[in-house]
Amino acid sequence: MSAPTSPPRPPAGEHQLRPTQRWLWLGLAASAGLALLDLVLAVLSGDPAAANISGTLALAPTLTAIGGARRHVVVVGLLAAALAALMCVVDGTPMLTTIASASVVAVATSVAAAVAGVRQSHLAQLQDRRQAARTLQAAMLTHLPDPEQLELASRYVPASQGDQVGGDWYDALVDRDGSTTLVIGDVTGHDIAAAAAMGQIRAVLRAYAVEGGQQPSQVLTRTETALERLGIDALATAVVVRVTRPEVDGAPLCITWSSAGHPPPVLLLPGGSGGSGGSGVRATPLEAPADLLLGALPGVPRADHTAELPLGATLVLHTDGLVERRDTDLDTGTRLLCAAIEREAHQGLDQMLDTVIPAVLEGRHDDDVAVLAARARR
User: Which one is the CATH code of 142-376: 3.20.20.100, 3.20.20.30, 3.60.40.10, 3.40.50.360?
Assistant: First the structure.
């Protein structure tokens, strides 16, 4: 069984938008700095009334409104207005100038406080929307079954920017024939629209897959046909893998897969199963021609490919967000993934994913990441 998927982290930009107390201190510091500057100018000019800059204190509440809460703006504005009046009295400016300066600061405070209030309201709505989207995304992440001959584990890592929801998904189910079907997919985009399209595609695909008795290519073809007839206009990559039990106990499991433009699964062979290298294990992508994306050209024939899954071997399905970088190609990312899997082959399946995924991402990912791993029980 898989460990619970880690909850999505709030986007980095969201932390920067939240009202924070540091803006209160910046506003107070700006008020003190402008008051001190007024005193310096008064001494240097010899004419305090002419050098008075009390009106510039309107900048303090305006600065606070950039990232502070409405209450922060009000506190800074009250202090700034009081300092403006005091500066005018100390500098000996006419009463009309004193009233005008204090009024400018008061008006600026009112406007800035209103802006801060609207900003807080919009931010609250945005956070509610994101939380609702994350909850929906989490609900669509499958609770993995526990097949007799397979150990399963999965992870979902949202993109570090944006709504933190997207079109990546994984799925696993046991069909009526007792075979296990594994699915990994990625709808174009990583926003709420992509997540909505993903939910529809996932539901259609798993409805056909659970029937059993079909090759993965047939499941993809039927899914594509249904999406066309339902008017669901979306492009998606996907890999469907069917794992069937051997006829003889102890024999390798048989895996059959079909790819709709998706990165190939990675097969980790245990020592003694043809592996190479000092550790006796080898991770290699299951290279095979990938057919067109789902939705690209319905009706085009799709192909199936087969391989063996020896006892103790591990199959890792993943989306391109795990291996694709702006500064490197997919082949480089795939090699990094294979090397990381080989290093952690000795670990349990959940522990392996917990170590491999951060090692490959290296703290950088602009796209969502979904990973589904299956290990043949010894």
Answer: 3.60.40.10
Single pTM value for the model? 0.70
Nearest one of 376, 309, 311 to 147, comparing CA atoms: 376
Residues 34, 176 contacting (CB under 8 angstroms)? no
Distances (CA, A) of 147 to 10, 131, 172, 181, 377: 34, 33, 10, 10, 10
Angle, in degrees to the nearest 10, between helices 70-91 and 22-45 = 10
Element housing 13 (H / E): helix 12-17
Beta bridge partners of 56: none
**pLDDT average per 10 residues of sequence, the chain (378 residues):** 42 51 90 92 88 91 90 93 92 90 92 89 76 66 87 86 72 92 89 83 94 94 94 93 85 94 94 51 90 90 95 96 83 93 94 95 81 93
